[in-house]
Structures are given as structure tokens and as C-alpha cells.
Amino acid sequence: MTKRRTQEEFLQELTHLLISEGIRTLTIAEIAERLKCSRRRLYEIAPSKEALFLQVCRQRFDANMAKGHAAARGAPDAAAAISAYMKAVLSPSGMSKAALTDLDATEEGRKVFDAYQVARVRGLESMIEEGVRQDLMVAHNPRLVSEAILGAAFRFRNPQFLEDTGLSLGEAFNEFYEIVLNGLLKKR
Q: pLDDT tens digits for 32-66?
């Protein structure tokens, strides 16, 4: 006798499928077949495959933000909080290149990803302010720093840029965050 999946298990499988493959090449029928569920079950979650994908992406981004804030709360000081936060929210939640391309292919998808990017850097602003207050960081305008990061985030989403640099999206963010946190000049 086959064990029936819980809704949570089903949503995890759905999320894994969509962030691994995106939606461009999938139909609702194929998603249902691969997840061994009815189309009705999918339509109960969202009215279309695009809406289903956007819902999965939003939930994934929200979970990633929560993970980042939890990592920051557990840090001993503002500098460690920033480092922990940036590492936790570093990648776009394990989404494949195909999923990111599909997300960036529509205006609504770009809005979802843009909102995540903005939330990510706004969360950073207060941590920078605290780092300056604790005298752990050089006093720079927190909004300027967060806007520079946000601008880089938008540039890093460009597939041609990633191809030209030979970096994945996660690698580009990681390297940029390293520059932001540690600078370009070697300490002597």
C-alpha cells in the first residue's frame, strides 16, 4: 500500500521540480504526471503553471529571507551578523539557471525577483548601521552600500554577463559580497 503524501511533502516535491527545471518546457499535465497527482490538485494551488511557479518562487524567497534573519540574529556582533546574513541569502534559494531564466522572462516574475532583491538589501541596511555604531565597520552611508549591492544584483541576473565572467549567479554574489565585506586592498 502506497503511503499518501502530506500537503507539505507534496509542496516540497513541487518546489524541487519547479526550481530545478523552471516551467518553460513543462505543462500542467507533465507536472501532474511527474508528481503523480491530478491536475486539479495543482489548480487548487494556483490557476496556471505561471502562477504556480511564481507562488513557489515567492515562498522559496521568503524562506531564504527568514533563514538570513535567523542567521544574523545568532551572530555575536554586527559584522558577524552581516556576514552570516549575506551568506544565508546569497543564492536565489537554490534555483537553477532554467528557473531563474523563466522567472526573469515575464514582468510578473521580474517583480517577484526584484522584490526579493530589494528586501535582501534593505535587511542589510540596519545591520550596516549597527556595525558602524559598534565601531566594527567603516562609516559609509548604509543606503549607498545597499543600493550598490542592489545594482550589482540586477546586473548579475544578466545571462550574458554571467557567461562573459564564467560565473554562476551564486558565485558572482559570493565574490561581490566578499569585496563588499573585505574590500579590494590587501591588508598590510
A: 999 999 999 999 999 999 999 999 999 999 998 89
Output DSSP code: residue 157.
T
Other Cβ atoms within 10 Å of 153 Cβ, number: 21
Q: How far apart are CA 135 and CA 21, in angstroms?
A: 45
Q: Give CA–CA dist 82/128, Å, rounded.
A: 7
| Contact present, 24 and 98 (Cβ < 8 Å) | yes
Could you give the residue ranges of the DSSP H alpha helices within the chain? Answer: 7-21, 28-35, 39-45, 49-73, 78-88, 97-104, 107-133, 142-156, 159-165, 169-182
Residue with cell 523563466: 102
The pTM for the full model equals 0.80
Give the DSSP letter of residue 187: P
- Report how far residue 36's alpha carbon sits from residue 2's, in angstroms, rounded to the nearest whole number: 12
Neighbours of 70 (CB within 10 A): 12
